[in-house]
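#onboarding

Welcome to the new folks! Below is a worked example of what a typical request in this channel looks like: someone posts a single protein sequence, and someone else replies with the predicted structure as tokens. Don't worry about understanding the tokens yet, we'll cover that in week two.

Example request:
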Amino acid sequence: MKLYNSYTNKTEDFKPIEDNKVKMYVCGPTVYDYAHLGHARCYITWDVLYRYLKFKGYNVTYCRNVTDVDDKILKKAEAENKKPEEVSQFWYKQFENSMKALNTLKPDVEPFATKTIGEMISIIKDLIKNGYAYEANGDVYFRVKKFPKYGYLSKQPIDKLESGARIEVGEHKEDPLDFALWKHDEKFGYNSPWGVGRPGWHIECSAMSRKYLGKTIDIHAGGADLIFPHHENEIAQSECANGCKFVNYWLHNGFVTINKEKMSKSLGNFLTIDDLLKKYDSNTIRFFILTNHYRMPVEFSDEALTSAQSGVKRLLNAKKTKINENLDITNTNEYKEFVEAMDDDLNTSRALAVLFELANKANKDDKDAYTILYKLANVLGFNFEKTELSDEDIQNALKHVSKVLGENFNTMEDLISCRKKAREEKNWDIADKIRIALQESGILIKDTKDGTVIEAA
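Example response:
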């Protein structure tokens, strides 16, 4: 298996530190608002990596943190006259619901920053003791120039960074490049050797990663926007505190863009996951994201999501047979092609092509094709279970059937009644036209002893 390492800018063979164990850390959300499509891309991407590593037989410990102490959270708490923990708990729940709706697996460990303050203080004390950090009026800063490899991840020379560095009002830095490990804060702070304050954002991930995964980990992943300064600072403080390499493989997903601009809350051009799910299901969003290589930017448009929706229907509408749990899929050509694609730095677009091939075979009555499709699609996180039909689904289906039959149907009850009458009169042509037209719209109609039922195809 090969992965592109952002630190070396090379595609490298993946070799975990311990035989079959993989320690994987992903920077999680700062919980103060709704998660958007950019977050969906990040967490779906690393959900697929997590699933694939497990599929390959690795014993994975996936840690994704929750930043629940931050300037944005405090600002929102003040604006809404609430306690910071009320804000963070509410928005964490919204994030959790969004991730569940996207069918992402829950990480093995999901630590909260506020529960790891002691570990942060411990690391900061070590950095001060070893001369890598200093206290100034209740703040603590990291001495960037004491770490010669600073800037290596982001490929920014120190002189270039210096030219853009500034000391803000109220800061007491020795050097403009130095960054905060601890911030003096009498109102929302925690007790520390340097007075009441709270941690800087970067130290949070270093502490949580070390506590739950160890001093050196296999994979650290996140969005490309975190490379500088967040991940750069994590490397500096972790390696100086621990005296060893922090991460073996740095992985970063590309941005989601709208009109060629990065999607972000600061630009105000973001779409929340909740709003998106009102129009498209989780399979469609996942398909849209996985059609593109994870390192490349993804341009959002309704056309792209509609195309993804059609692709998902091709997979879900494959002719279904009973899943053969005992089938050894590892000897099949499709399995080998799928693994070859995913081993090539998670080439999900090639992996999707394998799924389409299997869907075609299933439709031609290949007895094992659907089982292989079902199992491989699960590795990419697609949900093949039946979903509830929305009002929009039903209305679209009624329009299609009305067009096919040349007769207007305003409700599904009217349509079912028409089909029932046709069957009673042995008018099989009309009954079949209704059934086929509904299936073309993604709806199955079934006759049971309890009556006629409809469900998603």
